[in-house]
Amino acid sequence: PLSQQYSIGSVPWNIEDKPRFSHRGILLDTSRHFHSVRTIKRFIDSLSYAKLNVFHWHIVDSQSFPLQLHTLPNLVKGAYTPEEIYTPEDVQAIVEYARARGVRVLPEFDTPGHAGSWCNGYPDVCPSPQCTQPLNPATNKTFDLIGTLITETKTLFPDEYFHLGGDEVNTACWTKSNSIAAWMKAKGYSTDDAYKYFVKVTHDLARSLGRKSVHWEEVFNHFGAGLEKDTIFQVWLSHATAAKIVAAGYQCILSNSDVWYLDHLGVSWEKFYSNDPLMGITDPDQQKLMLGGETCMWSETVDDSDIFNTIWPRAAAAAERLWSPSDVQDADLFKPRLEAFRCLLTRRGVGAAAVGNAQARSAPSGPGSCFDQ
């Protein structure tokens, strides 16, 4: 009210602050459960409150393909329902909403595994109707489709990087397909050779279309130093792999699943807080290649009803680790800040869970102040 007076003492203030890592984000999976545009925008708001600057959008997966594309109109047949899709206009609105809040949107289209939903609209790119993934490496139709997808999504996602996945590829469907098995035999390929062929073709295709690639950790484990040095690898299996990636001269994003996977409800905020991306990396030049990290919100058990109390407040512990200097390590000193941030989120309409929960997203244990839950 105008009748009240406010004062700020000891002015002028000089505040110097900067992030320790440039890449500070959260992966959100919209395939296992669809998340509404309204929820995604609120999610982006919450990222900005925590000084996170990357929305890694894991848009599609085996379960559903909720993105409508003009040049590949049948892909959206892989959506759960016609009501659970993102139009190109939705995507453009989300990307602009994020940009205005200092958040990049990094799109991921995981291949060749995690792609069974593609077969609903384009069955020729899959091994068979009964065995749908990994995508078929033996036909150019697969790579033509991926090239068309990258070309159209360039108009939706301005980020120079494009996440091609590459993780958890079970090649059993390739050996069960007579045509793919014959193709591998003719080329003298093992299933592992065929996997490397697929990754290299799609990697080169993305580059030819003006996109640099991000891949999950398994791609590094197969290729070593065999890809261009502007490739980024995202670690999820083992924190120790990060040191090998930067030692090979590549940039790295940390998302080790034992700590920074938000769907692991029993992992405490203290563990999120202590997970340092530079653990085991002592060479200063190699440390510069560690871009930062992401917590990951896989959505098998998450939809619009419980997304925010699953992400928050634990992701805020990772956010401080990615922002603050390396000597800011005291969890006891951090806890009051985390409690205050949780209350800030709830006041802003983001339903963060209580800090003291043994299991993420469980209800407060009893009556009390927001600052003491």
Features:
373 residues; alpha/beta; 8-stranded parallel β-barrel; globular
Order of helices and strands: EHEHEHEHHHEHEHEHHHEHHH
Helix count, per DSSP? 14
Distance between the termini: 31 Å
Radius of gyration equals 22 Å
Structural class: alpha/beta
Beta-strand segment tally: 8
Strand order of the largest sheet: 1-2-3-4-5-6-7-8
Shape, please? globular
Mean pLDDT: 96
Major sheet, described briefly?
8 strands, parallel, barrel
Q: Detail the poorly predicted runs.
A: none
What does this structure look like?
The chain is of the alpha/beta class and 373 residues long. The chain has 14 helices and 8 strands. The chain has helices at residues 37-49, 88-99, 140-154, 172-176, 178-187, 191-208, 217-223, 240-247, 257-260, 269-274, 284-287, 307-311, 314-323, 331-347, and strands at 23-29, 54-58, 104-111, 161-165, 212-216, 232-235, 251-254, 290-297. An 8-stranded parallel barrel has the order 1-2-3-4-5-6-7-8, surrounded by 5 helices. Strand 1, helix 1 (37-49) and strand 2 (54-58) form a beta-alpha-beta unit. Helix 1 runs parallel beside helix 2 (88-99). The chain is globular, with a radius of gyration of 22 Å. The two termini are 31 Å apart.
Topology:
Elements: E1 23-29, H1 37-49, E2 54-58, H2 88-99, E3 104-111, H3 140-154, E4 161-165, H4 172-176, H5 178-187, H6 191-208, E5 212-216, H7 217-223, E6 232-235, H8 240-247, E7 251-254, H9 257-260, H10 269-274, H11 284-287, E8 290-297, H12 307-311, H13 314-323, H14 331-347
Parallel strand pairs: 1-2, 1-8, 2-3, 3-4, 4-5, 5-6, 6-7, 7-8
Helix pairs in contact: 1-2, 3-6
